[in-house]
C-alpha cells in the first residue's frame, strides 16, 4: 500500500509523539502495572489502523476503481431506450475509459438480434457483474443460462435498470430490478420510452458496486440498503403488487424525474 510522502511523515511523527507521551505517562504513574495489550494487535497493526483511517478521506470513486482486480470484468448492456447511437457511443466510450475493467454491449447490434447470445460474450471466469439498462424481451432466459454455468451459485451480481423483459423472469434471475413507479398521468407504454435522466450516474455507481462486491447479494433484508446505496439520493422503495398487495423481495421502484 502506498502512502504519500507528506502524509506518511505526518502520521509517522504523530505515532512517534504518541509513543513518547505514553512512555512518559507510564513512568510518572504511581503503579507499576501495565495495561494488557489487545490480543493479536501489534504496534505495527496500531500504526496501520491510524494510517487506514486517514486513507478514508481519499476520493471514494477513485479509490474503488484503483482496487478492482485487473482480471475482473463488469459488463454493461444497453437495451431498449438506452441504445440510440448518440447516447451509446458517447457514454460507452467514457465508461470504458474511466473503468478499465468495463466492457459494453448494445442490443440488438452486438447480439445479431438475439439476446440469448449474451452467453457468448460473458465468458470471463473473473466476472464481477452484469448491468443491464432496458433489458429486451427474453433477457431473463439468457441470464438463467449464465447462472447455470456457475451451478446457480454465482459470485457476481446482475443489476437490471428499467427492463422491458418479463418482470417475474427478471426478478427470478437478477439480484435486483429497478423500475419507475408508474404514474397515473401516463400510460405504461409512454413511461417505458422515457430515458431516466440519472441513468449515467446510476450505471457508474452500479459498476463500482459490482466491482467491489465480495459475492452475489441475496434477496434478504439487507438488499434494500444495498440498492439505496447504488441509487444514491433518490428514494428507493420495494415494489408492491397492486392486485395482491404482495411486496417483492428484489424489485424496487423510484419516482420518475421529468
Q: Which features would summarize this protein structure in a list?
A:
single chain; about 260 residues; alpha/beta; 7-stranded mixed beta sheet; about 15% strand; globular; disordered N terminus
Task: State the gist of this model.
This protein is an alpha/beta fold. Helices cover 42% and strands 16% of the residues.
Can you walk me through this structure?
The chain is α/β, with parallel strands linked by helices and 258 residues long. Helices cover 42% and strands 16% of the residues. The protein has 10 helices and 7 strands. Helix 7 (167-173) links the parallel strand 4 and strand 5 (176-180). Helix 6 (139-149) runs parallel beside helix 7. The longest helix is centred in the first third of the chain and has 24 residues, at 5-28.
